[in-house]
């Protein structure tokens, strides 16, 4: 490389560092055990994104003992209709008057600040663990994340990005088209389209680590390195289309 090419490349990386620095990332993490593979994936993300100059917030749901149940306790003070409880209606009204419980207000503040949300979890029953589903149910309330007709491309959280990063018990082969578990892309529809896209969030391609329990130590290290590598160029990625035609064909 000649001097001018080297200085061009240094300039480009400085520019890209400056663009990434100051970005805010929220990692919503659901695993009970810090030494787990999910724990390692979360650590890699915190380290890599911090190195890029991003400011990283982590909601460690089990450590926080996050309440997954959507109940009357989420509303502080009087109910809008105390005769017949309706969670959606009550959270909308409570959100408008600043009457949601403090744990929800705290999480909503993090979402509001975040440019990118990474959801890190082990696959449970072809879905996310209940504690993370509870986060979706309770944090993404109407008025805050959506309010009809403000949904999908006009959802209230537009201009944010989300990425689902998860591990499986089953192998990639088991989750291939025609595999015993079926095409893993079908599992993504409720998370990516039904939740994130509904709230206006743009979705980056999922990051799936297949069967970390059943591969060698060496392979596990490679998977972690690949995650760090992806994170290095994440901000250059284009969002995916969450509702492609092939879903219902
Ligand atoms: C209720 C329930 C439902 C489930 N449903 C499904 C389902 O529908 N479909 C499916 O496919 N699976 C399912 N599973 C399996 C589950 O998805 C996997 O067990 C999980 O994804 C594995 O991830 P982990 O982080 O828990 O792995 P761990 O067991 O924590 O990690 C695997 C190995 O990696 C090691 N490790 C950790 N960090 C590092 C590091 N830095 N370097 C090297 N090695 C490291 C750990 O010590 C461990 O030996 C289910 C499990 C449960 C409990």
UniProtKB/TrEMBL annotation:
Cofactor: FAD; Zn(2+)
Compartments, as annotated in UniProt: Cytoplasm
Database matches in SUPFAM superfamilies: Flavoproteins
A GO cellular component entry from the record: cytosol
A GO term for molecular function: NAD(P)H dehydrogenase (quinone) activity
Family annotation (InterPro entries): Flavodoxin_fold, Flavoprotein-like_sf, NAD(P)H_dehydrogenase_qn
Signal sequence, renumbered to the chain: none
Catalytic activity: 1-(beta-D-ribofuranosyl)-1,4-dihydronicotinamide + a quinone + H(+) = beta-nicotinamide D-riboside + a quinol
Keywords of this entry: Cytoplasm, FAD, Flavoprotein, Metal-binding, Oxidoreductase, Phosphoprotein, Zinc
This enzyme's EC code(s): 1.10.5.1
Limits of the Flavodoxin-like fold domain: 24-230
Chief location: cytoplasm
Oligomer status and interactors: Homodimer.
Free-text function comment from the UniProt entry: The enzyme apparently serves as a quinone reductase in connection with conjugation reactions of hydroquinones involved in detoxification pathways as well as in biosynthetic processes such as the vitamin K-dependent gamma-carboxylation of glutamate residues in prothrombin synthesis.
Family membership: Belongs to the NAD(P)H dehydrogenase (quinone) family.
Record's protein name: Ribosyldihydronicotinamide dehydrogenase [quinone]
Species per Swiss-Prot/TrEMBL record: Melopsittacus undulatus (Budgerigar)
Taxonomic lineage: Eukaryota, Metazoa, Chordata, Craniata, Vertebrata
